[in-house]
Known about the structure:
This protein is of the alpha/beta class and 471 residues long.
Amino acid sequence: MPLALLPWPVDVDIRPGALRLDISAPHHALSLARYDVIDGPPEGYRLDIADEGIRIQAASAAGRFYAQRTLLQLIARDDEGFFVPHVAITDAPRFEYRGIMLDVARHFHSVDTIERLVERAADLKFNVLHLHLTDDQAWRLALECRPELADRGSSSSIGGDPGGHFTRDDVQRIVAHAAAHHMIVVPEIDLPGHTHAVSLSHPELTADPVLAPSVLEVVEEFGGGLPRTGEPYTGFAVGFSSLDARAPGLEEVLREVFAEVARLFPGPYLHVGGDEALGTARSDYRAIVDMAVRAVMATGRTPAAWHEAGAADLPADAVFQYWGFLTPSTEHAELARRALERGGRFVLSPADAIYLDMKYDADTRAGLSWANGPTSVRRSYEWDPAGVLEVPEERILGVEAALWTETIVDEATLEHMVFPRIASAAEAAWSRPLGSAERDWESFRARIAGLGLLWERAGIRFARGTEIPWR
Length: 471
């Protein structure tokens, strides 16, 4: 059975023998290591384990942290106690951006839940937490400049479930906890669509709902009623809402909002959404996205957006997040091509691979299946970032797994949908391309099986499907 390492390192040299650890708990092994600073990739490290002891060399605190995560995965136990195999590992990430996105708009999730997600994602060497803070169902961020947005727009969730929002203190706590685990936080204020919650406090800034046939079909399938101006929306439908490009004062509001968001979240990126604006005319879409980008750039941050924003005039250093399928539709491929022409970098979140809210199979209790049907663990793994779009690898900033929460009502359900498929995204983001040493399905499923006991001890309520030979 291979070493239970996830994501798989760049270079692993397994040697005969093992080092016995005179410790009472696995985490105590970290204090036994000798640490040295070396030149090298910012997040890279070298880990050597021999009879002489444990040596970690890294160029930064982040590299040291990732070496410690690898060391903890290597610890095993038998009748004689804890031990680690003799091994030499040289490692550094393939991509600089390795993210997980949590939608807190469709269903609200607490700071405690987010902190636990950060810890578990960091164990797999993720370094970005993307929070989808606003949508049709709610506005989850309290702002001093516009307190009415959260006061009136956060009272509920899909299905009429309880709502909530984050205070400034909550945000500071999330940002600090992420930083302690070498993660940045990317806040998303979604526009010009997905903005029905804005209409609850600012109807003068929004257009009337556009009840296209696709909206009526979703209402018929999932219920939730039709969206109505001035009333909270608790259904599943998308694409009916829009900001009004001609609303007096809209750009001023966007400048105020993004200026305060930038003060709350110190990371390099501010996400402006831009997806599924089906009820927005093309010219209005461009005008509103341009307003938002100007507001972001005034803060000195880099704008990020879903790939539909390729239709607008984003700057050359913008980040485009692709959420289409592994085999892109003609429309999505064209939008990605336009983004590429503008010089943007890409974060890849293919929906039929690493949308973690997709069902595992037809019997999965929670989740949806619109992304080419259910997504098995194997399908979540067997793809490579370089093969999704005709984008040079140097233009791929990274990979991000996404968890939308239409059906994710509590932390137990969240964990079940995230684990084990989050490990697929971790390996796509960190390790060498699919088909390299140990980067194949059989190796991955065996290594996941080896981590099952660690996840169990950590209290993670993961999905125990039959694809993995759990032990």
